[in-house]
User: Which sequence fits this backbone?
């Protein structure tokens, strides 16, 4: 035995020919003497050959990769964040609170300005389209699948002079999320999905806050998600 | 100064045209890495978007003469790991099958390898993507992942063996 220990860690580099000098010679001698490392080297060579079939995924156009048209509006928002992070977030938070208040007020016949639409029942194409209208890309099929069988309330309004759509969906009890105990959050570009379960029923909250990134999540968390939830369950 | 260093310097002054140049230079690489790690087009787009928005936000902290590609790979890998954690909560839509019907043997084989890659843990998969898709050296992978050369070599050895085992019948 050349080494007291096996040469596993060096075998890939040896198989790829990137191990040079005396170390390569030592590995070669070890492999000749060690049946285990010899077998591993054979498998690694096979793995290297297979892995070499992988190649960069093409992203030639908008449909197969992120485009400049999608990035550019976000940059401008980010720039504004950098310049006036404090006041803007305070404004957004205040608007979020106002939005939450608007949701609870919307139970009365006189819906306040800012809550311009509210629908109930199973989410329809119109409602997903309302979310999509504020999002530059199509909604992930997995998300759409999640919403299709759910009861939901769509609320649109304005936050910081930007259109906002919140879609609160109460998912059926046999939904996968029902078995989860902790709330989860899924980012899909600007479209945010937040799901959780309570009292045996699972819920998902979808929000589209253009260009606000993580601030959208914070808004969802701090602007009375439970109030929104309460509203959706009364429908 | 290289063209890239000039572009980074211009971006630090808020030059969007310079940032577009950087975006076009790196977007395929970022998307491709995310696509192979996540195995999903939509999720890879999300990650790529996140990476470039982060780059724009953090450009002031990046040295113009520094290794931008290493920074991009690191942010991409971390974003992919976060995205994978979130994706666990949702049912994945099957990826579009672009090649299996085309009768191209090589393409079908490549697809099988990609599928097998998806079966590996992130710890083994990411070094393989960086090595074989992006062509990074072992040292570069260590810099991206923030670990030692020995750790990278060990993970690649285990990853290659796992890939060979998963594809035993076609290897």
Assistant:
């Amino acid at each position: 035995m050349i080494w007291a220990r096996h040469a596993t860690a060096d075998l890939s580099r040896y198989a790829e020919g990137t191990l040079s000098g005396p170390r390569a010679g030592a590995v070669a001698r070890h492999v000749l003497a060690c049946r285990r490392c010899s077998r591993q080297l054979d498998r690694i060579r096979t793995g290297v050959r297979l892995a070499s079939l992988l190649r960069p995924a093409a992203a030639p156009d908008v449909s197969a990769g992120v485009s400049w048209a999608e990035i550019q509006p976000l940059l401008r928002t980010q720039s504004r964040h950098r310049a006036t992070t404090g006041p803007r977030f305070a404004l957004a938070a205040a608007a979020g609170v106002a939005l939450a208040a608007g949701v609870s007020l919307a139970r009365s016949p006189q819906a306040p300005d800012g809550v311009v639409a509210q629908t109930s029942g199973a989410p329809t194409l119109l409602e997903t389209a309302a979310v999509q209208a504020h999002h530059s890309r199509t909604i992930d099929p997995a998300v759409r699948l999640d919403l299709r069988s759910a009861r939901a309330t769509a609320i649109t309004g304005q936050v910081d002079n930007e259109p906002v759509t919140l879609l609160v969906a109460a998912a059926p009890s046999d939904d996968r999320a029902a078995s989860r105990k902790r709330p989860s959050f899924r980012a899909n570009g600007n479209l945010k999905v937040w799901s959780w379960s309570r009292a045996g029923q699972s819920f998902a909250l979808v929000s589209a806050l253009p260009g606000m990134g993580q601030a959208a999540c914070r808004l969802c968390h701090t602007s009375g998600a439970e109030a929104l939830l309460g509203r959706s369950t009364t429908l | 100064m290289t063209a890239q260093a000039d572009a980074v310097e211009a971006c630090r002054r808020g030059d969007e045209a310079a940032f577009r140049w950087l975006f076009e230079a790196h977007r395929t690489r970022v998307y491709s890495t995310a696509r192979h790690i996540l195995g999903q087009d939509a999720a890879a787009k999300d990650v790529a978007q996140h990476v470039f928005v982060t780059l724009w936000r953090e450009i002031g902290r990046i040295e113009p003469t520094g290794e931008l590609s290493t920074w991009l790979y690191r942010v991409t890998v971390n974003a992919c790991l976060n995205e994978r954690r979130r994706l666990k909560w949702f049912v994945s839509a099957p990826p579009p099958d672009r090649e299996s019907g085309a009768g191209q043997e090589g393409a079908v084989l490549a697809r099988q390898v990609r599928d097998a890659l998806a079966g590996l843990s992130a710890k083994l998969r990411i070094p393989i993507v960086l090595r074989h898709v992006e062509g990074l050296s072992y040292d570069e992978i260590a810099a991206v992942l923030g670990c030692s050369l020995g750790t990278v070599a060990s993970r690649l050895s285990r990853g290659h063996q796992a890939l060979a085992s998963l594809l035993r019948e076609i290897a």
